[in-house]
Each structure stands twice: as C-alpha cells, then as structure tokens.
Amino acid sequence: MKHADSGSICLEIASFEPPLEPARHTVAVRALCEFTARSGDLDLRYTPAPTALEGIAGHSRVAASRGAGYEREISLQGRHGALLVRGRADGFDAARGRLEEVKTHRGSLARQNPGQRALHWAQAKVYGWLLCQARGLAQLEVALVYLDVDSGQETAFAETHTAQALRTHFEQQCQRYLHWAELEAAHRSARDAALKTLAFPHPAFRSGQRDLAAHVWRAAQAGRCLLAQAPTGIGKTAATLFGQLKAAADQRLDKLLYLTAKTSGRQMALDALALLAQGAPQADAQAAAAAPLRVLELVARDKACEHPGSACHGAACPLAAGFFDRLEGARGAALAPPAPALLTQARVREVALAHGICPYYLSQELARWADVVVGDYNYWFDTSALLHALAQQQGWRAALLVDEAHNLVERARGMYSATLSPEALRQAMRSATAAGAPRIKKALTAVRRAWLAMQREQIEDYAVLTALAPPLAAALARCTQALSEHLADEPQALDAPLLEWHFALLAFTALLEQFDAQHSLIDSQRGGQGDCSLTLRCIVPAQHLAPRWAAAHTATLFSATLKPAHYHADLLGLPQDHAAIEVAAPFAASQLAVHVARHISTRWAHRAQSVGAIAPLLAQQFAAQPGNYLAFFSSYDYLEQVAGAFATRHPEVPQWRQQRRMGEDAQRDFLARFTEGGQGIAFAVLGGAFAEGVDLPGRRLIGAFLCTLGLPQVNAVNEQVRARMQALFGRGYDYAYLYPGLHKVVQAAGRVIRSPEDRGVLHLIDDRFARAEVQALLPAWWSLPPG
C-alpha cells in the first residue's frame, strides 16, 4: 500500500507469508548489528556529531534530492529460524537497483573509526537481504551515503552483492545473535519464575513495610506513577524493591532501574537486593544458579577509570584498544552462571581487567542485559541519559524506583540549566588553539564584544533577560558553528580551555533552543571582576521530566519528606493520574523527646547572638544524657562559629566537624566515630552528606540539634524563584523557601529514630518551629510541645 509521507512515497512491505511457528525472538536491525558486527577499538574522542533533528533533516535532504520513484523508510522483516529481524531501510532507487543506508556526520570521513564503518556496512547488508527477499531480487547495489550536515556534501560507497551473498551475511549475523538470544530467553524464563515465588528476606515485615510494598505492586500492575511518603527507618528500600520485583513477571518488565541521589543510597539498594536474591526460595543450588537476578551497579566515569587523563581511544588507552574484539568474552564471563548476581563496581572491574578492557564502558554494555540497574538519577533524567536512550532504542518495558525523591527537584533543575562564564571565555581566547586559528579567534572576539555591550547596558548587579540580545545570540551561534567545524576537521586540535568553553556553549545553546519563559529564565549576574555570567536557569523542570515518566511503564518516587504531595507533583511533572500515599509511621511519640527553643532565632541577622545561646543548650543536653549527637547548621561558617565557641567553653566534650569537600574516605571516618558506646557531638551542615541516607541505629546516635529551618538564602535568584512559583502555583514563599527547608529538617531529624527500639531526643532550635504552618509540615507522630 502506498501513501504520501512529507512529499515522498513510503511502502509497507510484507516480506513473506507468516511462518507456521511463531518467532520466539524479535530484534531490530540496529540492535542485531550492534551485537554482532562491532569490532576494533573503543574510540570516544569527541567530535561534534549532528543532533537528532539535524539527522532527520539530513535524511530528508538526501531523499528530496533523489528521483520521483525513490522510496524512503521501507519497512522490512525477515526470519532466520526462531529469530525475527525488523527494521526500516532508509531508501531504495528501484530504477538503479540501489539500496541506500544514510548516515549524517560532521568533518572528514578519513578519520572515521574503521569499526564504525564496518558496523554501517553490516546494517546496510542486512537491509539488502531483507529487500532482496521481499522483492525477489537476484542482486542489489548496496550503498552507504554519508551526508555532511554543514557543507551538504554527500559521499557514497557502493558495493554490488548477489542475493545469496547478502543472505549468507544475514544468516551469519542471526546465528551469532540467536545463540545469545536463546540463553537470554532461558534466563528471563527462570528469572520470572523465581520472582513469582520471591519471598521477603526477613522473618516479618516492619510496620508500614507491607503497606508500602503493596502500593508499589499495585502501581506496577496499573502502569501508574506513585508518589509514596514513608517514614525514615521502616526499610523503604527493601519494601519498594520487593513490591516492584513481585510485579515484574506479570507485567513483562525488562528492566528495573533503581535511581539514587547519593552513593549511600546506591549501597543500601545493593545490600537489599543481595538479601532479596537470597530470600527467593530455590529447590537446590543448581536451580539457584540457573535463575540469577542480574543486578548491575553503575558508577561515574571518574570513579571507574583505570587510566585518568588518558583519552578514550586505542592509541591512548590500552583498555580501549581492541575493546569490541574482547567484549564478547567479557560479557559472557560477567553474565554466565554461576557468576555473582551482583555486578558491583568491583566485580565489573575484575572481569574487565581479566579481559583487558575498560571497566566503565563494560558496565554500560552490561546495562543492556541486567535485570536491575542501580545508579544515579542522571542515568534516566539527564539530557544525555544512558538508560533512557537505551530504553528508547531497545524498546524496554522499564520500571523506575526513585530513592529519596525529594532531591529530584534540585537535581533536575541542575540538569536543565547551563551557565556561560566570562572567565571560561577569557581562558578560551588565551588558548594556543585560538591563537593559531584566525576563524576561532574572530568568533570568540565577536562573542566577547557582544557580551561587553550587553554588560554596559546592565545597571544592576543582577538582571533577568526576556531574551538574549540579538547581537550576542548571533555571536554565540557563529562561535558554536566555528568551533564545531574546526573540531570536525581537526579533532585533536582543541586544547582544554577551548574544549571546556565549547562544551559549555553547546549545553547553553541546546537548552536555549527549547527555552520556555514560563518555566525557565535567563539571568545575568555581575561577579567580583565586574563581568557578568549568563545562566539559563531551569525553575520548574516538569516539562523536561514529564516525557521521562511517560517512557517508563511504572515509576515509584519515595522518601520520608514528600509533604505536601502537590509541590512535588507540580515541579516534577508527574502524570495527572499519579497516585499519592502516606505510610503511617511505626514509631510512638514516646520514642522521641522533641524540644523547641523558642528563645533562640537563627535568622541571618541574629546569628552572632545565637551562638552564645546554642552552645549552653548543647552542653546541658550532653551533661543530662551523655552519648553521640549530631548538630546541624545552615552553613559551614555558622557551624564553625558554634563549634568553636562550644570547644572553648566545654573542651571536655569530644567533638568532630564536617569539612568542606570531604572525600568518601573522610566521610567514612566521620561516621566511624559514632560507635555504640561512644560519646561526643558531631557538627554537620544541613542538606549535606550526613543529613540523609545515614543509618546510625541504637546508641550510635541518641539525639540531634537542628539549629536552622534550612530555608534557602534570600537572594536575587531565589526571589525570582519565589516570584515564578507565585505566578504558577499561587504559593511563592512556600514553594521557594518553606517546603525545601523543612524537607531538609525532617531528613536530618530522621537520623535519630531508625527502628521501633530506638530512643532519642530532638532539639528544634529556632522560634519559628513553634509556628502552626511549620509544625503542619513536620511528622505527625512527633509530640511537639504546645505553642
């Protein structure tokens, strides 16, 4: 059947009569060839690739330049045994007997990775056989057509093959994939059977755990998004994982993605998954080995790189050389029984180094085959998110568990914001590359000139722009083009300062293309040297996140601090039909003695006076009940003032302090001082590494002092946030200040009571804690003293 499609003809082709036996496995042409036909080095040297929109436009340009009988986007499919292969060929010229596979690019093709060219040929030849089979062709000209999106130049490489040769190639690719597909199908079947009988790993649920797990299961069954507030200490990680895994088989889920904000959350998920895997009843050891739940930990590149400072290509890094040639062996070793079900960073590194390949990129390959992936938020929500991209390419039916979801608002704002720094521009202009490349120097100078002109018109230190000044917008666009073209021609020519500027410019201009003045703003802020930085600032990330929720079959966002629910639903773009629940706390008011210091103000104007009042309060509590305490402050400066005063007056009380930019080893040392029989006061920053995701049960922590409401600083930027929230939601102060601040307070206070057996004390130090509107946002089970 023919039908019009943007001025060209699109044919839907049935390749042959349906087989008597249905195919057991289905794969896209791209996925098939990415599995079977990649070879050679890993080569991730940065070259400016066309955007998705530029790629679509490039394909249309090629099709438009062909004759009237040219067919585009031809749907094809073919069988090899139990495997069904599907895809869309880019174009076919029946008059010439030529099938075209179109690829867009920038820069010289002479520098193209040979492995990439081989992959393109493999795809083209698979399409070639599918077309020969569908049309009954005896031979076919197969062409790779490369289009430079900047110059419009086409470069074609063509080969003529008999149908039999193309069929042989097709069957070889299918046979290699089919063996793996059979193994994967067996794993999937055994995995689903095990999950249907999955047992909770503890003798009994804690109070609230069963309720939370049941809600997660129901949301998965309904394919809905769930916003779940549940108190700290009930075991939210185990409950949500159990509920989601129990639904996986019935809902035919391909992947469970457990997304965290911090390293501590990732480790708790891995520990819970290890227990859950052990809790699944197995008939014998052999059955347990045959049905593993593959759990993969994803970590940041800088934590997994074995050769920091080396570029990711074969000539610079030994673990990139021959990566794809050795990938099959490493993949098999990592996933084949009786390999460990937990593919932690350490386990992936062990396998990767045994096969001489990069651990970081092996983990990214293993994400295709893992059942559960544990990693940071950015792997799904960022602009270039790996897991979201794979889900789209592979057609995954995915479930999301978003841990400590109250953090997602600020993290998402950061993902969809970008800044251009005048210092970065100056460094780029001083770079050796710019000095030797007149076109780049000219483009950078034009940006600097337009930027200075904008600054001269700015009277105040902070200004919100309705749009970029046209001369500056044009200069930035020309600079982006000049850098992209230069880098495409000479990929090794850009030094670090210029490359850093280029990346910042790409991020800024990409977000500028989708700028929405209702949910974002562009501001200019004058710095110490008088220069103004430009920031495209995301205020409400809902429009960016909504498509990510839609791409998942189900999602559960959970935290101890999701009150009020409408705040998170509004800012995170949750679907209209999402569900929201609050799990009752299993704790009694008698477990936590709550005191409100109404006589102390921790407002900025009263900080100096408050130091003299807070120190005696800390000493009085410690004297009455010696043990381990955490004292939280709004800033490092405030922390140091109080800790210093306390040390001077009470040198006999042990104390330790959080420092700026503490590494993971220093953080572990900080927490190690909270021993079961220990005594002392630790000073920390509210919202920092020790205010959430830290588990100090029993006598390891018996009390906390909250010396702040945690409200964001009142400044020009936050006042813009308040104004935008007022315009959109009618609750500017609450959305910009009150809710974010009290989320931090409740999280920090939640370190004290971790189980029904714990007992502790909490001091809320600020007169505003006595206000009704503040107390309404605190946990209902706290017994607050009357106002």
From TrEMBL:
<dbReference type="InterPro" id="IPR027417">
    <property type="entry name" value="P-loop_NTPase"/>
</dbReference>
<dbReference type="GO" id="GO:0006281">
    <property type="term" value="P:DNA repair"/>
</dbReference>
<dbReference type="Pfam" id="PF06733">
    <property type="entry name" value="DEAD_2"/>
</dbReference>
<dbReference type="InterPro" id="IPR006555">
    <property type="entry name" value="ATP-dep_Helicase_C"/>
</dbReference>
<dbReference type="InterPro" id="IPR006554">
    <property type="entry name" value="Helicase-like_DEXD_c2"/>
</dbReference>
<keyword id="KW-0547">Nucleotide-binding</keyword>
<dbReference type="GO" id="GO:0051539">
    <property type="term" value="F:4 iron, 4 sulfur cluster binding"/>
</dbReference>
<keyword id="KW-0479">Metal-binding</keyword>
<keyword id="KW-0227">DNA damage</keyword>
<protein>
    <submittedName>
        <fullName>ATP-dependent DNA helicase</fullName>
    </submittedName>
</protein>
<keyword id="KW-0411">Iron-sulfur</keyword>
<dbReference type="GO" id="GO:0003678">
    <property type="term" value="F:DNA helicase activity"/>
</dbReference>
<dbReference type="GO" id="GO:0005524">
    <property type="term" value="F:ATP binding"/>
</dbReference>
<comment type="similarity">
    <text>Belongs to the helicase family. DinG subfamily.</text>
</comment>
<feature type="domain" description="Helicase ATP-binding">
    <location>
        <begin position="195"/>
        <end position="460"/>
    </location>
</feature>
<keyword id="KW-0408">Iron</keyword>
<keyword id="KW-0234">DNA repair</keyword>
<dbReference type="GO" id="GO:0003677">
    <property type="term" value="F:DNA binding"/>
</dbReference>
<keyword id="KW-0004">4Fe-4S</keyword>
<dbReference type="InterPro" id="IPR042493">
    <property type="entry name" value="XPD_DNA_FeS"/>
</dbReference>
<keyword id="KW-0238">DNA-binding</keyword>
<keyword id="KW-0347">Helicase</keyword>
<dbReference type="GO" id="GO:0046872">
    <property type="term" value="F:metal ion binding"/>
</dbReference>
<dbReference type="Pfam" id="PF13307">
    <property type="entry name" value="Helicase_C_2"/>
</dbReference>
<dbReference type="InterPro" id="IPR045028">
    <property type="entry name" value="DinG/Rad3-like"/>
</dbReference>
<keyword id="KW-0378">Hydrolase</keyword>
<keyword id="KW-0067">ATP-binding</keyword>
<keyword id="KW-0413">Isomerase</keyword>
<dbReference type="InterPro" id="IPR010614">
    <property type="entry name" value="RAD3-like_helicase_DEAD"/>
</dbReference>
<dbReference type="InterPro" id="IPR014013">
    <property type="entry name" value="Helic_SF1/SF2_ATP-bd_DinG/Rad3"/>
</dbReference>
<dbReference type="GO" id="GO:0016818">
    <property type="term" value="F:hydrolase activity, acting on acid anhydrides, in phosphorus-containing anhydrides"/>
</dbReference>
